[in-house]
Design goal:
The structure is a single chain. The chain has helices at 13-21, 39-42, 54-62, 121-135, 150-158, 164-168, 177-186; strands at residues 4-7, 69-74, 87-98, 102-112, 140-142. By secondary structure, it is of the alpha+beta class. It has one domain (4-143): 3-Layer(aba) Sandwich (Aminopeptidase), CATH 3.40.630.30. The chain has a 5-stranded mixed β-sheet with strand order 1-2-3-4-5, sandwiched between helices. Helix 4 (121-135) links the parallel strand 4 and strand 5 (140-142).
Length: 189
């Protein structure tokens, strides 16, 4: 299959949002339809909890100080998806800093539409993101992966990723918006 991986452009943001939040046919969220679902449906994220929008991505990714880096996978029109899409995957990442290791890359999403998986597209997206990180002096790449998706863990391990939960006992913690608001208010006390 022919495909290209390139830097995301503002014109791609509508497709990125499609890959993030498209719902399953007729609103059915059962696993039976997973082949046609995208990220938010697969991970059971209610649409009203998705704060990102095309406009937010434009500001954050293409403003004066870009906050993320994104690469997209695209197929030629003759190989488009069942629904007529040519942008069929992406990797979105941010740069972080470790007090031990210096600059790092954190991959927030690496995603390829189900009908295009198994053809080397995910690997090429991963390689493109890691190439950019290496050229910018990063020493590590981090990504969280759902334990409900062992195939994703296997994919990353196959390419050299280490499961820190299993190897070192690290846990990923999250503070939701309500906790952020509460702790921010307490910082003035």
């Amino acid at each position: 299959m022919a495909f290209a991986v390139r830097a995301c452009a503002p014109k791609d943001l509508k497709d990125i949002m499609r890959l993030i939040k498209r719902t399953s046919p007729a609103g059915n969220h059962s696993r039976h339809f997973e082949a046609e679902e995208e990220i938010a449906v697969i991970y059971k994220i209610p649409e009203n909890e998705i704060r990102t929008s095309e406009e937010e991505l434009m500001k954050a990714g293409f403003g004066e100080h870009p906050r993320f880096e994104c690469f997209v996978a695209e197929v030629p029109p003759q190989q488009k998806s069942k629904e007529g899409h040519t942008l069929i995957g992406y990797v979105l990442s941010v740069y972080t800093y470790s007090t031990w290791k210096g600059r790092n890359l954190y991959m927030d999403n690496l995603y390829v539409m189900p009908e295009f998986r198994g053809q080397g597209i995910g690997k090429r997206l991963l390689n493109r993101a890691t190439e950019a990180a290496w050229l910018k002096g990063c020493s590590q790449l981090h990504m969280h992966v759902s334990s409900e998706k062992p195939e994703n863990i296997r994919f990353l391990e196959k390419h050299g990723g280490e499961d820190l939960s299993a190897k070192e006992g690290w846990s990923l913690l999250r503070f939701q918006e309500a906790q952020l608001r509460q702790m921010a208010a307490q910082s003035k006390c």
